[in-house]
Amino acid sequence: MxxxxxxxxxxxxxxxxQCMAGTRCxxxxxxxxxxxxxxxxxxxxxxxxxxxxxxxxxxxxxxxSSGSDCPNGWGCMPVGNPATNVCVRAEALCDQGNTASxxxxxACDLSSTLxxxxxxxACNSAADCPQRAVPLAPWSCDGLCRRPADVFGPLPGGYQPxxxxxxxxSNPVVLCNDAQHIDFVGFTxxxxxxxxxxxxxxxxxxxxxxxxxxxxxxxxxxxxxACVAVGSVSSQRIGLCLPTGMTEPGQACxxxxxxxxxxxxxxxxxxxxxxxGICPGGLSCVAGGAPAVEGMAFRRCE
Length: 302
Fold this sequence. Notes:
Blueprint: E1 23-27, E2 32-36, E3 52-54, E4 59-61, E5 74-79, E6 84-89, E7 108-109, E8 118-119, E9 140-141, E10 145-146, E11 163-166, E12 172-174, E13 181-182, E14 203-204, E15 210-211, E16 214-215, E17 225-233, E18 236-243, E19 264-265, E20 268-269, E21 285-287, E22 299-301
């Protein structure tokens, strides 16, 4: 449900709370409808996006009240004239000589705690900053959003292959925005590569190793990904932003990556329906098993 994308039935709305997971209540010029979140889709002008385009770095965005309304790796800050609160991408590389990926040049974080220069955004409180899934350590705010101590780089979800270096204790660390990595097709966690801590350059992970973001249902995921609660941290179920494909729910699949909602269950494309109970194609929203996620019983379409 993005411009020039796959057409789907949707609902009229007056707030995001009335919309199914992965969509937002947006005025398309004919009224307010639940439309797909295209945050991160490349753009050169607002007409290419469901809501608006941040034309400097060149990506679609969405309105927000706090970072919780935005995908992980994105925060909420006022942009434009008149200033409007929109989702701003922090999961992007920058350095002293190249800040084009950041919302403004001053939003390039070159802190000594980071191995790679990382875009960020202005904040009044940590609530404006990117929101990771619980129980992962949160971002903080000192006027700029600052990454937690386990994050050493900004490589976005889907970045492949991963890049690695060493932390200050000479441990190999992945330089992903959410400090997590995965083989999307095999749904396994590849081992870390051999890293030379004395090297001035990073080293690539395995060819099938990609950065992956955790997610909360409210903020969802950036364009091209769906929030599916199939991850686990400290024995707690969490959402992961999984890449979306073209195969509809109810049709055969061999991996999550082929499915329109990023989820292949028992050889059939499914959808995480935990929040909204909505299943396309005549499927039913059924219990998906313990543990719960965000205080709710995990459910999927079958």
